Amino acid sequence: MTGRVFSRRRLLRGAGGAALALPWLEAFSERRALAAVPSRFIVVFRPNGVFPDNFWPTVRSETDFTLNTACKPLEPWKSRLAFLDGVDMPMAAKSPGDAHQQGMGACLTGRKNQAGTIQGVNAAAGYADGISLDQEMANQIGGGSAVRSLNAGVLSDFVGTANKKRMIFSAPGQPVPSQDDPLKVYQAVFKAGRSATATDVATDLKKSKSVLDAVLAQFDDVSRRVGSEDRARLGMHAELIRSIERRLATAAAAPSTCTTPPAPAPSKYTSQTEAQNLSRLQIDLMAAALACGLTRVASLQYVNSDNQWSFAVLPDPANDHSMGHTEWGSTEIGLTRDQGIQRRLPRHLWYATEFAYLLDKLAAYHEGERTLLDNCGVLWMSDLATGGHSFARMPYVLAGAAGGRLRTGRALRFNKASNCDLFVSLLNLFDVKATTFGDPAYCKGPLPGLF
Amino acid sequence: VPFRALTRLEYVNTVRDLLGDTSVTLDALPPENQVGRFTRNADDRNVNEPAVDTWRGLADQIATRAVRDRLAALVRCTPKTPADETACGHQFIATFAPRAFRRPVTDGARVALEGLFDGARAAFGFADAIGMTLQAILQSPYFLYHVEGTAGAAGPDGVARLDGFALAARLAYFLTAAPPDDRLWTAAQSGKLDSAEALRTEAARLMAGDGFKAAIWDFHRQWLRADAFKNLFKAPDAVKGWPAQDARNAALEESLRAFVAAVFGRADATVRTLLSSPALYLPPELAPFYSDGPRYGLLTQPAVLSVLANTNQSSPVKRGHFVLESLLCIPLQVPDDPEIAAAAMKVPELSKDSTTRERFAGHAANPACAPCHVVLGMDDLGMAFENYDTVGRYRTQDAGKPVDASGRFPGFSDPALRAPFANAGELVDRLTRSPEVRACLVRQWYEFALGRSLRAGDVPSIDWIAQGLGGGGPADAGLRDLLQGLVLSEPFRTRSLAGVKP
Q1: Are A85 and A412 in contact (CB under 8 A)?
Q2: How far apart are CA B42 and CA A158, in angstroms?
Q3: Contact residues, B window 416-475, toward A, CB-based 8 Å cutoff
Q4: Burial class for A327, CB neighbours closer than 10 Å (0-12, 13-18, 19+)
Q5: Is the dihedral of CA B176, B180, B181, B184 positive or negative?
Q6: CA geometry: angle at A438 spanning A435 and A444, to 5°?
Q7: Residue B37, pLDDT above cutoff 50
Q8: How many Å apart are CA B165 and CA B103, to the nearest integer?
Q9: Are B136 and A240 a contacting pair at CB < 8 A?
Q10: Strand, coil or helix: B373
Q11: B-contacting residues of A 123-152, CB under 8 Å?
Q12: For residue range A170-216, what is the model confidence (pLDDT) as tens digits?
């Protein structure tokens, strides 16, 4: 194994400045020749589902519909949205774990959780048993960019059970955390080479490469001494170091065509009172990175499926997780159902406002005749359909035109479709020739009539 | 058994001990993925790009600080010529890298580091070369993972003895959440740890030191779910006049930390001390709220009772569940039916006219609930703590009626313990005398000490440790004896080499 895996590093080292002549880059060039304007894919997650009665639009026909109360902040963007009603998450109900573990594992992978020992509410599970849609997109369309995928979060690591915090998976059972610290997002995306002048960039790159080569040599050394299980993980670790090495080289080689935004001030990124500020910082950075062509795939994860935060950004802070239950009649925080529905609404509105802000931001960047939003496909989603732990009618909403291929201003109805089917459609939307995604037992093929 | 990675706490403490650098915070490290009950678990095979990138960034920052602030202390030589510099750099690698790796440096790693240093020295100068070498050490698999060596060949079962370095590292990270100190390192080098007596002595020494508190808290923080304090929410009515949420939570967590530290700080503390000590360590701002009523050890600590409660009322379910699952090691599973799972999330409405016992009485009538809540005894175990409300305040009245905290637990193997109990005090007394509780505590510590989930083959070792505890009966089982027993057990001193090519 070592010979094959480590050969690419030797090539990199040997080739020096010609390191860009790697197979992955050639594949990227071919793809770029096909698509004149690069499309970008974005996922925005908020936890614990919606309340159907105030979320789903009133639909008269596919193109004639009225937004519901909880989506009012999106009114200016109505013509750029597609509501996808009737997409279920059927594998989740059969997955190990409690409802939040089930939902979080399946919502971007279309797969069940692995069996495991992470304790949920009266159940236990491991992590999702497959790659998530955004990571598959990154493999397919993100490889040539400086940052394969930008995974930002707002309080995503806030209090909670391990596998209720992770929706992104690079491989079965391999969660990728979202980065809650805007400064770290900034450093990873915009400051790949830290220095200002071309000479300093070259020096920094040379230093980083020497260090990483010495690190890789130690991985080579240890891999020869350990068992197959360890070798597999160490091999994966080494491959990630190589990926970083490539990214640094790409970032240093690519002349920046846009202005790097100023670095955000250090923020209290674990504090829930900062959520509003953090949300805007992350959206700004995300839009700037997409506009600069530094990444093609981005995600933004608000909190997590445990969602124990009390929404301190609102005048009415209270545990949001319990509030979701209350919409379905639970009295655990001493509210009636009607009170619960009324008091959770501002939370739904907050997420819709932040989503509208993202669309504002994307539309403000011009790319030739179009805007960045035109060239993005944005998926707005959740881990559960409702705060009552349902997996039917998942609140999947699309925004943007994905380079002109996605028709919006529509409210579509499907009949018990699976989120796997939606994910196949989205891959197709980005010219990825997939016929199945996620658990094949729940995948019938692309959604009819989506585009 | 795979190697596990350094936990966040272990990383922070290792950098502290190696470089005297205390500016790395837990939050600066990649988030941990919990597998099983504890983060120090080899079954967590996750590694991802953000984590690798974070380790890279930290290595850069730590090395920059080290070279800027303490280069002379780090390299301990003042080179004057290029030849001096090379010798000095190689000497740095020869002395520093083994401590960073907690074991002798392999030829392959040494060649890589010396090669890096030589090239960097020629291109960028001595100080940068030291910094870059330090970066490569801090990103090395030998630093980031617990790479363990064995002494001699594996037996027919595929199990081999750990070498002295691996044993010293296991011992140090288990009992101090930090790398071996100088004395332990010397013992490892001299092969002294091969003897059980030396191992016992070193364990006792570490348990008497400062690092022990950090390790003990790392265990209890996870076992007692104290991370919930980052944002434990209570209904405003329940905490009227209390310090605000963050201050309240910090104070409660601190009181639990102080309790655990005090119990384990006593060399003669037993399982009974942990489970029934009347002590409370409350900061002044909380003390007035907890002045009433008796306390019976860990389970009646305000912090534990607050976590194991609903936002506006006590929770016999959460409390009973904790006793069953975490003190008696009885695994529980909700029926697969999603409707039942959803029903299980609902808490009966709080009312001024009904007691907790009345509100949860529906469990007995519902055949989906009764097997665990009634027959297995979960609700009775939780009701025993009904004298303590949602924030663990003592009360004798609930909804205007006297609190009924009585019950029985039929799961004790000892028939004498199965008789009805009147309140938390009587239940706790039984728990301290139950062999099941002792065995369960051993299981939890075993998982923590070995840094992996339990396997079928572990049962004999767990039994061996449990049986070796204390001379005066289970209630007197010494907590330090338990940890000593773990350290001396075969699994702690060996490693399975199945799957490793020679």
Answers
A1: yes
A2: 24
A3: 453
A4: buried
A5: positive
A6: 45
A7: yes
A8: 5
A9: no
A10: helix
A11: 123, 126-127, 148, 151
A12: 989 989 999 999 998 998 888 653 444 566 778 888 999 999 999 99
The complex scores an ipTM of: 0.91
Amino acid in the structure at residue B125: G
pLDDT tens per residue, range A396-430? 999 999 988 899 999 999 999 999 999 999 999 99
* Contact status, residue A86 vs residue A59, Cβ threshold 8 Å: no
Contact A229, B134 (CB under 8 A): no
Q: Which DSSP string do the residues of B405-452 spell out, in sequence order?
A: --B--TT-SSGGGGS-B-SHHHHHHHHHH-HHHHHHHHHHHHHHHHTS
For residue A228, what are its two tokens?
């197959």
- Measured between beta carbons, which residues in chain A are less than 8 angstroms from residue B230? 158-159, 270
Strand ranges for B7-106 from DSSP E: none
* Phi, psi (degrees; rounded to nearest 5) at B155: -75, -175
pLDDT of res. A296: 92
- Tell me the torsion sign for CA atoms B301, B306, B308, B309: positive
Any A CB within 8 A of B247 CB: no
Q: Does B139 touch chain A (CB under 8 A)?
A: yes
Does the beta carbon of B33 lie under 8 angstroms from any beta carbon of chain A?
Answer: yes
Edge-to-edge strands, sheet with B494-496: B150-151, B159-162, B494-496
Half-sphere CA count of A37, side-chain side, radius 13 A: 20
**Whole-angstrom Cα distance, residue B431 to residue B433?**
5
Can you tell me the mean pLDDT for B336-341? Answer: 62
Nearest by Cα to B256 from B214, B304, B327: B304
Q: Which residues of A touch B43 (CB under 8 A)?
A: 117
Q: One-letter amino acid identity for B177?
A: A
Q: Which of residues 313-352 of B touch A (CB under 8 A)?
A: 321, 332-334, 338, 341-342, 344-350
pTM beyond 0.80, yes or no: no
On whether any CB of chain B is under 8 Å from the CB of A118, the answer is yes
- Residue contact B27–A270, C-beta within 8 A: yes
> Distance, in angstroms, between B138 CA and closest chain A CA?
9
The whole-angstrom separation of Cα B474 and Cα B417 is 13
Q: What percentage of residues in chain B have a pLDDT greater than 90?
A: 67
| Cα–Cα distance list, B387 to A234, B107, B422 (Å) | 52, 64, 11
Q: Give the chain B residue whose CA is nearest to the CA of A232.
A: B45
Query: 3-state SS of chain A?
Result: CHHHHHHHHHHHHHHHHHHHCCHHHHHHHHHHHHCCCCCEEEEEECCCCECHHHHCCEEEECCEEECCHHHHHHHHHHHHEEEEEEEECCCHHHCCCCHHHHHHHHCCCCCCECCCCEECCCCEECCECCCCHHHHHHHHHHCCCCECCEEEEECCCCCCCHHHCCCEEEECCEEECCECCHHHHHHHHHCCCCCCCHHHHHHHHHHHHHHHHHHHHHHHHHHCCCEHHHHHHHHHHHHHHHHHHHHHHHHHHCCCCCCCCCCCCCCCCCCHHHHHHHHHHHHHHHHHHHHCCCECEEEEEECCCCCCCCCCCCCCCCCHHHHHHHCCCCCCCCCCHHHHHHHHHHHHHHHHHHHHHHHHHHHHCEECCEECCCCEEEEEECCCCECCCCCCCCCEEEECCCCCCCCCCEEEEEEEEEHHHHHHHHHHHCCCCCCCCCCHHHCCCCCCCCC
Contact B76/A at CB under 8 A: no
The rounded distance, in Å, linking the Cα atoms of A227 and A386 is 45
Give the pLDDT confidence of A40-66 residue by residue, as tens digits.
Answer: 999 999 999 999 999 999 999 999 999
